[in-house]
Design a protein that fits this description.
By secondary structure, the chain is mainly β. The protein contains six helices and 52 strands. The strands form ten sheets. Strands 37-38-41-44-47-45-42-39 form an eight-stranded parallel beta barrel. Strands 16-17-20-19-18-21 form a six-stranded antiparallel barrel. The protein has a five-stranded antiparallel β-sheet with strand order 1-11-8-12-13. It is globular and about 125 Å long.
Length: 792
């Protein structure tokens, strides 16, 4: 607190004082003047801090946090360290904590001329009082009442907080080098998947701002060797920032067409760079246009926030519709938490998915008219594609009817449809109990790689085909479309030549019966399953649906045990009212799975095992065995570098006297992301990272921890560990010394922002610090976190 020059003794004017005293007084006056200018003049007000924390009942103690306020006369009142006050009314009445200004006298000093002591200064000081009422001009920090054996804090009548004014920076520049590209998602359907109408691939638009490329550093100059945009305009990049591969950014003060001159003191690193405005993020407006009239049909807004480089911007809009035009406007943020925006760049028109690569008429795609034959197992259609379209056509859709009169229509949901990516297809006739002949009408149309089809389908000649009893036609057709009968003309010929078993039955027929059981799945017949697929019901080869009633599997473990391939499988878990899934789930070795809870899915038990888990979402897991981890999984380096993601998951380890909630073992090169989750461990630790070598990275955002011991334990032998915490609450219990500890790790870097905690991380065991601490929260990042920019 500064001291103001103020003699109290009338005789002091005749004496002389130490020179250092005079300097201290001048410094105090100057500091007060500066702070007076910076504070808002809404009086009285609380400038910062001064929060109240009541102790647990029956204690009458209330802690006042450090902070600054101004009284009605503009006098500055500062509490430099935590203070303690006592509430007086314990019967439910008001206990207003009131802060006021007072003058205090400094320690007397001797004048060097006479040696006489004078009370030479008085300075601004404070008083804290507790009262049952307050006046308009009082600075009220809050009200504490005793209610139901609990000290309750009320802040409704607290004197308003007033933030210090932000020094406005110049408006940020318009985003430079806007570069848009459009394509479609390459995730489609596996070859040989069950027949059904083709699904559209979702198109996307990818936007990049700034220039990226490679260059060579020399002093404060940086010369490009290659980049995306091409030559720079002379002096056109002044004011932009060059961000090098090490994450450091430098302002450009001049440039030629290939060399940038950076601000004094810059030490650029040769190699990859980004060049663009120094922005904390971008906001955008994307408009949907009519392809022909370009009339605006819809408008969407959004924004992105950076966690890394200040100039790199890459954003993808997913789910765009092919052949539809979009127009995009973009503006940049000025700096961290700055409210001012730049102007929008000019609208850019693009077509999602690029131009259609096939003609409107399906007939123009075909090399000749398709060959159509009526066979015992249905109508066989084969065709060939013109050479110029062979690399562009993904497959063909077919729509047909067999009532002899109705014309097939792709837009009619009741008409039968199928898709194939081969050059032939066999269409079965509708099932019947009579062995009769029917007339089949058919249309076909080509589909390109974006899932877009010809506008005008090819109409095929009407063809007569047999109706078979039961579901024999579907069985044969299913095999005809997935198997080759070898040297036999038809699958029927192959069956007739198969070896008979001792019981007189055909070996091949017995094998077919076994295959039929697998093909039926949970349906009564193969035909009913095929019909369900053609009608759009859910039946995916790499998806397991778990529901206690009506699902493919009634337990999660049964669904896992059914997986026999190393393809990634997704376990969809349906809720069942108030019923829980009570099971300890073991993930078999050599499988790769993800768990997705649909709605309120509760598991009483645990998840562990040697299999690979890539994703867990939408689950609430409760512990029922003491000392048993709720989640104990390993993120392995095979097959390929990937990232384990856990989002919208709650872990409740509440039973017994000990027990941690989760342990995630991470192999070299793997990463971990935890979002929107809650971990409670009433008798242990919340989350244990364990790694065995290499470098591992973790990002935890918008999560909550409530534990008895430490919230996070970095126990990673031989591994460098990088952890970023964002918008996360860490509540460690009485048994914990720290909220985050490092029990083993070669190197541990922790970056935190916008986090709250009740116990600090173990700073002595963290190789790099994490943020600026203020009143139980981490308010901003202290160190650059470029090492954590990309996790997947």
């Amino acid at each position: 607190m500064s001291t103001k020059y103020n003699r109290n003794d009338a005789n002091a004017g005749d004496d002389k004082f130490y020179l250092n005293d005079h300097k201290a007084e001048l410094n105090g006056v100057e500091e007060d003047d500066r702070e007076q200018v910076q504070d808002f003049e809404l009086l009285p007000c609380i400038v910062s801090g001064l929060g109240l924390t009541p102790a647990a009942y029956p204690s009458t103690n209330v802690t006042v946090a450090p902070g600054v306020a101004r009284d009605k006369d503009g006098r500055r009142i500062q509490i430099a360290s935590s203070q303690l006050v006592q509430i007086s009314d314990t019967g439910g009445g008001n206990n207003y904590v009131i802060l006021s200004h007072k003058y205090s006298t400094d320690t007397p000093r001797k004048a060097y001329s006479t040696g006489t002591e004078y009370n030479t200064r008085k300075y601004d000081d404070f008083e804290l009082n507790v009262a049952s009422t307050y006046s308009t001009d009082d600075i009220v920090l809050g009200n504490v009442k005793v209610e139901g054996s609990e000290n309750v804090l009320y802040t409704e009548e607290r004197t308003p907080d007033v933030a210090k004014p932000v020094r406005k920076e110049p408006p940020p520049p318009v985003p430079t080098h806007l570069d848009l590209e459009t394509d479609w998602d390459d995730v489609f359907r596996k070859t040989g998947a069950s027949a059904g109408l083709v699904s559209f691939r979702p198109a996307y638009i990818k936007a990049e701002f700034g220039d990226r490329g490679n260059g060579t550093a020399s002093g404060i100059t940086f010369t490009k060797t290659d980049n995306r945009i091409g030559d720079w305009t002379v002096d056109g990049e002044i004011g932009n920032y060059l961000t090098c591969a090490d994450g450091n950014s430098w302002k450009v003060v001049s440039n030629t067409v290939d060399t940038l001159t950076l601000e004094s003191g810059a030490v650029p690193v040769s190699g990859a760079f980004h060049l663009g405005p120094n922005a904390a993020g971008y906001k955008f407006i994307i408009q949907t246009l009519d392809p022909s009239t370009e009339e605006v049909k819809a408008t969407a807004e959004g924004e992105s926030q950076f966690m890394g480089s200040p100039v790199k911007m890459e954003f993808i809009w997913n789910g765009m519709t092919p052949d539809v035009k979009y127009r995009i406007k973009v503006a940049s943020k000025g700096g961290w938490f700055q409210e001012e925006w730049s102007a929008f760049c000019s609208p850019v028109e693009i077509i999602a998915g690029g131009p259609k690569e096939i003609p409107d008429a399906c007939a123009d795609v075909l090399d000749a008219d398709p060959t159509i034959t009526a066979e015992d197992d249905g109508i066989r259609v084969s065709w060939s594609v013109k050479s110029e379209y062979q690399s562009k056509v993904h497959g063909f859709e077919f729509c047909w009817t067999d009532d002899g009169s109705t014309t097939p229509d792709f837009d009619n949901k009741n008409h039968r449809k199928v898709f194939t990516d081969r050059n032939f297809i066999v269409m079965p006739a509708k099932l019947s109990s009579d062995d009769i002949t029917v007339k089949v009408k058919t249309k076909m149309r080509a589909v390109d790689k974006a899932g877009r089809h010809c506008v005008t389908p090819k109409t095929l000649p009407d063809t007569n085909a047999k109706k078979y009893p039961a579901d024999l036609s579907v069985i044969v057709t299913d095999y005809k479309n997935t198997l080759e009968p070898g040297s036999f003309g038809t699958l029927k010929d192959l069956l007739e030549q198969s070896i008979n078993l001792p019981n007189g039955r055909s070996k091949m027929v017995s094998e077919i019966e076994s295959e039929m059981a697998d093909a039926r799945g949970t349906y009564a017949t193969v035909g009913s399953r095929i019909s369900a697929i053609l009608q759009g019901e859910l039946d995916w080869g790499n998806v397991r649906i778990v529901a206690k009633s009506g699902g493919q599997y009634s337990t999660i473990q049964a669904a896992l045990n059914s997986i026999v391939t190393t393809n990634f499988h997704l376990i969809l878990i349906m809720p069942d009212g108030d019923n829980d899934y009570s099971e300890d789930i073991t993930i078999p070795e050599n499988i790769i799975v993800g768990f997705l809870g649909i709605g309120d899915v509760r598991i009483v038990g645990s998840i562990s095992g040697d299999g690979l888990v890539r994703y867990i979402s939408g689950l609430r897991i409760y512990g029922d065995i003491e000392d048993k981890l709720l989640l104990d999984i390993t993120v392995k380096s095979s097959p390929g570098n990937r990232c384990f993601i856990m989002e919208n998951v709650s872990l409740y380890q509440n039973n017994g006297t000990s027990g941690d909630a989760a342990k995630i073992t991470i192999s070299a090169g793997q990463n971990l992301i935890i979002r929107d989750s809650y971990i409670k461990a009433s008798n242990g630790k919340g989350l244990i990272f364990y790694g065995t070598g290499g470098s591992i990275k973790a990002e935890i955002s918008n999560c909550g921890f409530d534990t008895k011991d430490e919230c996070i334990d970095v126990n990673s032998t031989g591994s460098d560990v990088y952890v970023r915490l964002w918008d996360t609450v860490l509540k460690a219990g009485s048994a914990a010394t720290y909220s985050i500890i490092k029990t083993a790790a070669t190197f541990f870097k922790l970056v935190m922002a916008h986090c709250r905690y009740n116990k600090l991380p173990d700073e002595g065991n963290i190789d790099e610090d994490y943020g600026t601490i203020e009143s139980g929260k981490v308010t901003n990042v202290k160190y650059d976190d470029a090492d954590l920019e990309v996790l997947i």
